[in-house]
Request: fold
Amino acid sequence: MFSDKFEHLVNALRILPSVGPKSAQRMALHLIMKQREGAQQLAQALENAIGYIHECQICHSLTEDDVCEICRSHERDERLLCVVESPADVMAIEQSGSYKGKYHVLGGHLSPLDGIGPNEIGIPELIQRLTNGVVQEVIIATNATVEGQATAHYLFEASKHLPISMTRIAQGVPQGGELEYVDSHTLSQALHNRMQIK
Ligand code: ZN
Reply:
């Protein structure tokens, strides 16, 4: 086309989810023709985000520090540990305003066909965390998808020997549903009505 740099930008934009060649081209044109200043800010924001945001050493959610604000907080109930698949789930639960415990982010779900086993999503590390004698209840809040359920089941089996109560959020989260798309009210009900599984 008219510029290698333009092509380069279009290709770079295609890494975004659900962005095909046409949308990427439309975005690139929009940035260059109508939003030059906004595009500069976007570039700067991206650079800052990538440079400063990383995983929390304890819960693996995102933070600019070594340990995130939730892990550092003394206001949060450390006897309660909510296990989720991604930082997006932490955000969804926090936005529902109905949870005051701590979190553990797996960073995915079990998917043997893709080579993602317990080690890849840090299950041994989580089990280790559960042996600290502080956590009394684990709320398994993996997605209500097939993989999320399989991960919940695995976690249940792997921590069976520990003297910890386990609950699973279920009610209200539709079958096949991903937490981040569930509205705050439903999510808060789902947490409240969690089911005892151990
Ligand atoms: Zn943390």
Summary: The chain has eight helices and seven strands.
